[in-house]
């Protein structure tokens, strides 16, 4: 039995010590931030438009969702 690609990728990220990752959905114009907490990834927040992305691991981050989703405009 093989793991679904998404689950296998999560397992790999955890084993490599990836503290957080972002799911970027260009169709929904949305970014979901997940953070490794107590051995599993938990959603920290969902960001759209002018929402300022807040990252526990990068407290000085000053990007908005729009800047990430449409970098050609910045």
Automatic annotation (TrEMBL):
The record's listing under InterPro entries reads: Nuclease_put_TT1808, Restrct_endonuc-II-like, Uma2
Origin superkingdom:
Bacteria
Species per Swiss-Prot/TrEMBL record: Leptolyngbya sp. NK1-12
Domain Putative restriction endonuclease positions:
15-65
**Name this protein carries in UniProt:** Putative restriction endonuclease domain-containing protein
């Amino acid at each position: 039995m093989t793991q679904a690609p998404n689950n296998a990728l999560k397992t790999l990220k955890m084993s490599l010590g990836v503290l957080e990752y972002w799911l970027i959905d260009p169709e929904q114009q949305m970014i979901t931030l997940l953070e490794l907490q107590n051995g599993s990834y938990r959603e920290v927040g969902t960001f759209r438009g002018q929402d300022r992305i807040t990252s526990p691991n990068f407290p000085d981050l000053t990007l908005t969702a729009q800047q990430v989703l449409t970098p050609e405009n910045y």
